[in-house]
Amino acid sequence: MQRFYFDHNATTPVDPEVLEVAVACLGQVYGNASSIHYFGQGAKQRLEAARRQIASLIHSSPAELVFTSGGTESDNMAVLGVARAAAHANGRHVITTAIEHPAVISSCQELEREGVAVTRLRPGSNGIVSPDDVRRALRPTTVLVSVMHANNELGTIQPIPEIARITREAGVPLHVDGVQALGKIPVDVESLGVDLYSMSGHKLYAPKGVGALFVRKGTKLAPIAFGGHHERDRRPGTENVPGAAAFGAAAEMASRGLADEGERLGALRDRLEKTVLDRIPGAGINGARWNRTPNTSNLYFDGIDGEALVIALDLRGFAVSTGAACSSGALTPSHVLTALGLTAERARASMRFSLGRSNTAAQVDALVEALEASVAHLRRISVNA
Amino acid sequence: MPDAPIAVAMSGGVDSSTVAALLVRQGHAVVGLTMQLWNQRRLPELSTEGAAGRCCSLDDVYDARRVAEQIGIPYYVVNFERQFEEQVVKPFVEEYLAGRTPVPCTLCNNYIKFERFLEMADAVGARQIATGHYARVRYDAGTERYQLLRAVDRSKDQTYFLFGLKQEQLARTLFPLGEMTKPEVRGLASGMNLAVAAKGDSQEICFVPNGDYAAFLSAYLKETGVEPARTRGAIVTADGRRLGEHEGVHHFTVGQRRGLGVATGEPLYVISTEPDTQRVIVGSSDDLLRARFFAREVNWISIGPPAAPARAQVKIRNKHEAAGATLRPTQTPARVEVIFDEPQRAVTPGQGAVFYDGDLVLGGGWIE
User: By the CB < 8 Å criterion, does A330 face chain B?
Assistant: First the structure.
């Protein structure tokens, strides 16, 4: 069976060019980047070159980038690190949104256990959080605002520059989870105005197990892990040089191809949505149609059990997703869709399609055909049931 | 897709794993599905230390996934937690609070394994389902009915829990283990090198750790914020003698002897519970004997509803030896009076009453 991959927001295949860098580095650059000798220096050079490549993609200074094990660690480091470093006589308060990734949600819950008050802003039905809501939620004790850049399930892009103007004025650090934006839309930490920005390698064709956190110079960050003096005392542990080198190569590829690939994927996404809406009754788009990453489409098919549709499509060779998967691999209604005000029924009838480099127009057409057949089949049996 | 696959309900145990492997060996296309029924993160106060075969644990999913990988079939976990809570756990709790002794496995079979699971099988393009139940199904051309029969391995027979199955469900169900004994199944599993061949058997009520249903009820009620109206009450004899106090009728089941906390000369048994007055009536072993009872919501399987009294052997709990009885239809459809030849001990409201004719399962209902 031919298999097609439409789940690039979950992860991406490693790009062949990136793979080559990773394998070469894994095989040859084995020094410890902290060592004084030749081997260590070679590793350190690769590490710093990778840091420059990523810094160039997000327009930061390389010194403001910390390598991590991935998006989850970056989010933990930012949320826990900033909140714990902030001392407040009258308690501490954090503002976040109801549609964050579990890495931010759970970090905020951990802060609550430590006595920090947390405000979770709900987005509008378009999946976008209002900057005015951020302003209204600010308290004298607010020590952090954490808002994602692009949502993983909807692709909706949050108004980060507007939010940043508010947080700056209030003197509160702004953390942005950029895992789903990096490599899909231009990211410029200066014009965005963010203080911390989380990134993950495997969402942009680098391997799993490497990520980064942008930390603006002067931002106070308490450590969440303890060990040596790596990464300017910010992240202990021997550096994952092959991972970082691969991430760097992927970042450079993304900087080169971002505009063209974005346009191509946007056209494919529009083709997918247009044909689905034309051909499948009772289907629609969740969240905003504009202000989205170009590769992401979240569609509902009324009367359908999304879980069954994912399985039916997989058996036909199409990999798609309903949203966040729980630890056993089973699926529960998405907290993001529920936060938009969707009924539980519609949330369960929703599917995420996330396109990437391997997808073509022919694949999209084949997907729509399989969708049409599967949706019709599922509706037929649910009528009988 | 090639041939319509058979959907196998895989729990991660040796029985359902063997079913999946056997069907693959016979050349069928198979899809493995594990039903996620209960979130084990809930009710953390319940000790699961040493609890064997908790349902839906990550370990079970791991095992099922590993077997699926071994035999090369597509495998998915499907989440039925919502339906399981609504249709099995809540009724289970309510029945206990109402002073009855429920059979959640039957509800799970009726509403989850042979209804929701069949729907999911349909959804993924499977026409038939197979489970690891010990029971047999066959089509009888004479009566034009699908018949349910006891498993060849009587010690493993699970037909007591399957009396709710409808004809259209049986028509699409395979029980490949019905003709086998458990040792044979284990032998097959190890012969096929299945990773779970030596795994222990699961406990009876999968979501209640260590069978401590009273602890489960307390924890569940606490979590859902429901206070049972009034739970404390008196332990009395049939003639009204007050022997002591208890913490709630849901701690007692008909025929129970231990845990009464009252000492008298002769052994005492729970004869009945009265949720309205919160009284627990106790008496001697002989007081437990009943010659007749009514069964409601009777489902007929191997025969249609009889118009006249019919003979059967009736089983009133899983471990009960089916006893000779006459089934008498009543004015109410699906309500049957069961009249035993010899009085039976501990006819317990809420339990199932299953009617047999030898190996044949005629039907069954709920004891009123």
Answer: yes
Which position has the token pair 């569940």?
B220
Run of H or E including B327:
strand B323-329
Separation of alpha carbons A213 and A199, rounded Å: 6
Q: Round to whole Å and give the CA distance between A353 and A355.
A: 6
Nearest residue to B35 (alpha-carbon basis) of A313, A328, A334: A328
- Residue of chain B nearest A316, judged by CA positions: B1
Check CB contact under 8 Å for B76 and A312: no
Report the pLDDT averaged over residues A171-185: 98
**H, E, C per residue of B256-321:** CCCCCCCCCCCCCEEEEEECCCCEEEEECHHHHEEEEEEEEEEEECCCCCCCCCEEEEEECCCCCC
Selected residue of B65, B77, B118 to mutate for chain A interface (largest A Cβ count, 10 A): B77
- Fold exhibited by the domain B6-132+176-211: Rossmann fold (3.40.50)
A315/B58 Cβ within 8 A: no
Give the domain B229-283 fold.
Answer: SH3 type barrels. (2.30.30)
B55/B207 Cα distance (integer angstroms): 6
Joined tokens for residue A115: 């006595």
Three-state DSSP class for residue A175: strand
Distance CA A141, CA A158 (A): 24
Other beta carbons within 10 angstroms of residue B155's beta carbon come to: 8
Find chain B residues with C-beta within 8 A of A308's C-beta. Answer: 78, 120, 123-124
- For A182-204, how does the pLDDT look when each residue is reduced to its tens digit (9 = 90+)? 999 999 999 999 999 999 999 99
- Residue A328 touches partner B, C-beta closer than 8 Å: yes
SS3 B30: strand
**CATH of region B289-367:** 2.40.30.10
Please answer whether residues A189 and A266 qualify as being in contact, where contact means their C-beta atoms are separated by less than 8 angstroms. no
Distance between CA atoms of residues A307 and B117, nearest Å: 13
Q: In what helix (H) or strand (E) does residue A196 lie, and over which residues does it extend?
A: strand A196-200
ipTM: 0.84
β-pairing verdict for B75-79 and A117-121: unpaired
Phi, psi of A359 (to 5 degrees): -80, 145
List the domains of chain A with CATH numbers.
Answer: 4-12+257-384 (3.90.1150.10), 16-253 (3.40.640.10)
- Chain A residue closest to B62 (CA)? A328
Selection from B187, B224, B233 nearest residue B93 by Cα? B224
pLDDT digits (tens, 9 = 90+) for B116-144: 999 999 999 999 999 999 999 999 999 99
Residues contacting residue B94 through CB under 8 Å, at least 6 positions apart? none
Q: How far is CA B346 from CA A207, A347, B211, in A?
A: 64, 48, 20
pLDDT value at residue B39: 83
Q: Which of A331, A378, A385 sits opposite B79 (nearest CB)?
A: A331
What is the DSSP-derived secondary structure letter of residue B4?
A: P
Sequence-distant (6+) residues with CB within 8 A of A256 are none
**Which residue, among B211, B129, B142, has the nearest Cα to B170 in the 3D structure?**
B129
pTM for this model (two decimals)? 0.88
| Shared fold status for B6-132+176-211 and B229-283 | no
Q: Tell me the Cα Rg of chain A.
A: 21
- Residue boundaries of the structural domains of chain B: 6-132+176-211, 229-283, 289-367
Q: Is the dihedral of CA B14, B17, B23, B24 positive or negative?
A: negative
Please tell me the distance from the alpha carbon of residue A306 to that of residue A342, in angstroms, as a whole number.
14
